[in-house]
Amino acid sequence: MTKRDIEATQPDGTTEKESKMTKATQVTSLLVKKLCPQAQLPARGSAYAAGYDLFSVEKKVIGAGDKALIDLGISISVPAGTYGRVAPRSGLAAKHHIHTGAGVIDADYRGRVFVLLFNLSQKDFEINQGDRVAQLILEKIETFPVEEVEELSETVRGAGGFGSTGGYGEDNAQEKAQG
Questions:
Q1: In the Cβ-directed half-sphere of 137, how many Cα atoms lie within 13 Å?
Q2: How far apart are the first and last CA of the chain?
Q3: Average pLDDT of the chain?
Q4: For 65-86, how does the pLDDT look when each residue is reduced to its tens digit (9 = 90+)?
Q5: Between residues 147 and 16, which one has the greater pLDDT?
Q6: Res 13: pLDDT
Q7: Distance CA 58, CA 33 (A)
Q8: What does the pLDDT read at residue 34?
Q9: Do residues 112 and 35 make contact, with C-beta atoms less than 8 angstroms apart?
Q10: Which of 45, 76, 97, 98 is an S-S bond match for 121, by CB 3.0 to 4.6 Å?
Q11: Which distant-in-sequence residues (6+ apart) come within 8 Å of 108 by Cβ?
């Protein structure tokens, strides 16, 4: 603990910084700070929508097969016990092959929010200011301590992955023929 930390110690033994961080983790609403006048607050499209639509503050073209960071012009604070998952909008994905990447916003992140969009189509795609480009889904999260062990318990599945429990392709057709 530094001299400054000792001087800033609260009556309960926490530092001023720790006290501010604790208050931040007790947030029970999605807090949004507009960083520019054209920014829009995330908004749910219907009463039962799981996600909050996220809006671009810029005009940008994403080339065919390329990717781009889209500025939302906001910073956020998600409620305690959650993280923000940036997910694709179904219409953009189905009709235009626009998908999201790198979609986790941690509870302690306070920087400017961007959305990474991938254009998986054969045509350039234009984003305009005010376009809904993705959706933010708040998901509950639990974190646990990490413990190193020498061995893990055995399971029926074991180390099988990448389609080992069935799926599409030749391996699956062979399984059905034998089964």
A1: 14
A2: 65
A3: 86
A4: 999 999 999 999 999 899 999 9
A5: 147
A6: 55
A7: 17
A8: 98
A9: yes
A10: 97
A11: 21, 24
Nearest CA among 139, 113, 172, 157 for reference residue 51: 139
Amino acid symbol at 106:
D
Residues 37 and 46: beta-carbon distance below 8 Å: no
| Residue-level pLDDT at 79 | 94
User: Does the structure show a pLDDT above 90 at 128?
Assistant: yes
What share of residues in the chain are helix, strand, coil (percent, to 5)?
15, 30, 55
Q: What pLDDT does 104 receive?
A: 96
Give residue for tokens 């392709």: 169
Sheet holding 132-140, edge to edge: 52-55, 132-140, 82-87, 104-105
Q: Which amino acid is at 163?
A: G
Residue identified by tokens 């996220």 is 54
- Dihedral of CA 21/25/29/32: which sign? positive
Output the six-digit token pair for 158. 């074991």
DSSP string, 121-158: SSS-EEE-TT-EEEEEEEEE---------S-----SST
**CA dist., res. 91 & res. 45, Å (int):** 13
Q: What are the structural domain ranges in the chain?
A: 30-140
Average pLDDT over residues 160-171: 71
pLDDT band at 147 (very low <50, low <70, confident <90, very high): very high
| Domain 30-140 CATH (choose: 1.10.3720.10, 2.30.42.10, 2.70.40.10, 2.40.50.140) | 2.70.40.10
